[in-house]
Design brief:
Blueprint: H1 2-5, H2 11-42, E1 47-53, E2 56-61, H3 68-98, H4 103-123, H5 131-144, H6 147-174, H7 178-209, H8 213-216, H9 230-241, E3 245-250, E4 253-259, H10 260-264, H11 276-279, E5 281-282, E6 288-289, H12 295-305, E7 309-314, E8 317-323, H13 324-340
Parallel strand pairs: 6-7
Antiparallel strand pairs: 1-2, 3-4, 4-5, 7-8
Helix pairs in contact: 2-3, 2-4, 3-4, 3-5, 5-6, 6-7
The chain binds zinc ion.
Length: about 350
Amino acid sequence: MFPALSPGLAAASYWTMGIAATGGLLLSIVFHETAHALVARHYGIPMRGITLFIFGGVAEMAAEPRRPRDELLMAAAGPAASLALAVLLDGLSAAALAAGAPAAIAGVAGYLALLNGMLGIFNLIPAFPLDGGRILRAALWAWRGDLEWATRLAAGAGTAFGTLLIVLGLIGVLEGDFIGGLWRFLIGLFVNAAASASYGETVARRLLAAIPVSRVMNPDPITVSPQLSVQAFFDDYVYRYHHRWFPVMDGPTVLGSVATQQAVALERSLWPGVPVGEVMRPLTAEDVIEPETDAYTALQKMRGGGAGRLVVLRDGVLLGIVSSRDLLGVLALEQVLHDRMPRDRGRVVPR
Ligand SMILES: [Zn+2]
């Protein structure tokens, strides 16, 4: 790009400009995602982090927005930040030229202005999961109050756009633009996959949000005593029940939990002498859920904590445990029932 944009410089300058522009693009993407993350955090949506990957970046939310307005502002923040940065860099580039600064500086700033402008505009395309698709979904959601319907339409637009990119990519490859075509093809595949995943997530949310944890939990979990040796824990529990995680109970009191990873960290010769109570993890608020809470909230909590299991407690009394595997099983079952009784037909069918 640079020999075409700023002709007449030495080869070393072009290399330096290329490296500077690459770093600048990376920072521009971080800037875009940070804008999403800050607005999300402002509206109380917990953020898990910002991940950069080959197609750009993503600000990962630990939960979905609860209101259309929150989602709209959060989605718009990224493109707005990119477009503002584009204007700023464009001004900087013009000022550098006017002040007689080296052509390389104006060239890099001008190119980054262009990239940020493209980043802002591309992301405004109303195809879920692009930001524009999230804005579209938020608008439809606000209009009819039906998140699932809004997601279905916005994800449909995402699938159409992804398919268009795939076709354009194939045409590009056939016409000899191999790298550009392959790139469009891969981005199209990515957009398609993300569109169908987000629709699945919304269906899961509706199905699970209607079910209390008490209905899907295992009400009779196998528990271990803190006095049990790590050796006996493996011999009598892990191998016998094929679970990798157990609540640790002292009489009626839940003390914590023990997972095979914690026990394995202990040197093997010590297994017969060390009780489970010494290797267990004490119970924290992250590990606990109340029986009335809905299963979707439970799933979000598991994803946030990363344990994949929660202890169901009421007033300190163990009522059961619930795992992400239980929730996925329920989801599969609900989807079978749902497919048999499509709610779109508007008939009420007793279960
Ligand atoms: Zn974005």
